[in-house]
Design brief:
alpha/beta, Rossmann fold, two-stranded parallel ribbon, 11 helices
Length: 286
């Protein structure tokens, strides 16, 4: 039995499906009982637990062969990341109490970096769970191909995608969420001691211009990438409701300037799913 948090999302869902398809038992950990219904229909056991509820998390993790942990996304965290620190402390307490034989944690490229970014929240999680006696694997994927969801309508209707990744001809490591979920499921079935880090990217790196060209191929009309001027980012993000845009800006700068990168390029694992397949799925979902 493997406990999977975040199973209602893309990565957690892919993790759960991969385990089920391998004939393994899954305990779907959800925050709201109704969201667990589709997974119960698939044959999963369902546990209801908020990520700050130590007793509920402990119960969800107890008696398992491994736990997949992913924190809820927070794109506008308070300075110092108090929200994630609270969640990390709860998770650590739950793992300490439940004593699963291993934990696979969804982290990210750039979790430990030069400057504080949105991804630094995952570094907080790594530190909290890495200090435990339980064997922990930190899965660090890169930019999700599914971030292009926000470009579908503009590419379709205007023939333009607005890119914060710049320059437009700079290659960027990207990966499909299905590849991340599959990797997490595979890691849950492995055995190790201590702490390990697994880094993951897609089959090839792509540029924003190539993302636009792939949209053009799929839509059958020209699509171009357009760089969003760096000096407009803060005002734009604040206009969208963000109170603390600096970590997001730092993350984008890190990708663009090259200081957000994998730690050991020679050992990075490769996913199988190409950008075209992901974009085709995103278009079909609109």
């Amino acid at each position: 039995m493997y406990a999977v948090t975040g199973i209602t999302g893309q990565v957690g869902g892919a993790t759960g499906r991969t385990l089920l398809n391998a004939g393994l038992s899954v305990r779907a950990v959800v925050r709201d009982a109704p969201k667990g219904a589709p997974w119960k229909q698939r044959g999963c056991e369902v546990a209801v637990a908020d990520m700050n509820d130590v007793p509920a998390l402990s119960a969800a993790f107890t008696g398992t062969s491994g736990v997949f942990v992913m924190i809820p996304a927070n794109y506008d965290p308070e300075p110092g990341f108090p929200e994630i620190r609270a969640v990390s402390a709860a998770l650590a307490s739950a793992v300490r109490a439940a004593k699963p034989p291993k934990v696979v944690v969804l982290s990210s490229i750039g979790a430990v970096g030069m400057k504080p970014t949105l991804l630094s929240q995952l570094g907080v999680v790594e530190q909290a769970l890495g200090d435990l006696a339980t064997p922990a694997c930190f899965l660090r994927p890169c930019w999700f191909m599914e971030n292009s969801t926000w470009d579908v309508e503009s590419a379709r209707d205007r023939g333009v995608i607005s890119s914060f990744l710049q320059p437009l001809d700079k290659t960027v490591p990207m990966v499909a969420t299905a590849d991340v979920g599959r990797a997490a499921a595979e890691l849950l079935q492995e055995t190790w001691t201590g702490k390990r880090i697994i880094e993951l990217e897609g089959p090839v790196r792509v540029t924003p211009n190539e993302v636009a060209a792939t949209f053009a191929e799929l839509f059958g009309h020209p699509v171009r990438a357009e760089a969003v001027p760096r000096q407009t980012w803060e005002q734009l993000f604040r206009s969208q409701g963000m109170k603390h845009p600096e970590p997001r800006i730092q993350m984008l700068d890190g990708y663009n300037q090259g200081w957000i990168e994998f730690e050991q390029l020679e050992t990075v694992r490769k996913g199988q799913i190409a950008l075209k397949e992901v974009l085709k799925g995103l278009i079909g979902a609109k």
